[in-house]
Amino acid sequence: MFWFQVKTKSGYVRIEYLINTIIDIKLNTSPQKRDKNYKVYNRLKNDLLKYFSGRKIDFKRYKINIDGLTDFERNVLENTRLIPYGNTKSYSQIASEAGNPRAGRAAGNALNKNPVPIIIPCHRVIKKTGKPGGFSAGEKWKKILLLLENP
Q1: Cα distance between residue 122 and residue 113, in whole Å
Q2: Pairing with 71, which of 31, 33, 91, 118 sits 20 to 30 Å away (CA)?
Q3: From the candidates 122, 125, 145, 148, which is the catalytic residue?
Q4: Distance of CA 109 to the CA centre of its chain
Q5: Contact, 64 vs 80, CB < 8 A?
Q6: 122 is catalytic
Q7: Could you read off the pLDDT of 37-79 as tens digits, one per residue?
Q8: How many CB atoms are closer than 10 A to CB 139?
């Protein structure tokens, strides 16, 4: 496994990958020595820098790994990946699209297992009330990402 780190206006983002597949993304990491093989994902680094500068980027072209999840969890993540830039959906909407309309809380738990935030934009899933809800990197990051897409 290889990794690289991107310094953005909002903090550091660490990306782990294997060959052509993104394995994990961590937000708000501390600065670390870079992997010498980070050039494999120069395109992703540039896309992340553009994204954090407020530009609309389509991350759907990146191959990801969401193995090891249940069918429902995978459906939640796949449906979340389809939410357009600048838009949001509620946990119950995503649960319904994943095949279980009454499983909003389970959808939230599935989103908490998202290994690649931003690529799968789980920050775009919010409570019915319009409040942000939880986020694996913390509510501060979720608000940053939502404001970035809707200044």
Answers
A1: 10
A2: 118
A3: 122
A4: 14
A5: no
A6: yes
A7: 555 467 888 898 999 999 999 898 888 888 899 999 999 999 9
A8: 12
Note the pLDDT tens digit of each residue in 6-37. 888 888 888 888 767 888 888 877 777 655 55
The two three-digit tokens of residue 45, written as one number: 């680094």
The DSSP line for 88-137 is: -EEHHHHHHHTT-TT-HHHHHHHHHT-SSBTTB-GGGEE-TTS-----TT
**Cα–Cα distance for residue pair 143/115, rounded to 1 Å:** 19
Distance of CA 151 to the CA centre of its chain: 19
- Tell how many helices (H) and how many strands (E) occur in the chain: 5, 5
The sign of the torsion formed by the CA atoms of 23, 27, 82, 39 equals negative
Do β-strands 125-126 and 89-90 pair in parallel, antiparallel, or remain unpaired? parallel
Q: Which two tokens stand for residue 67?
A: 């193995």
pTM as predicted = 0.78
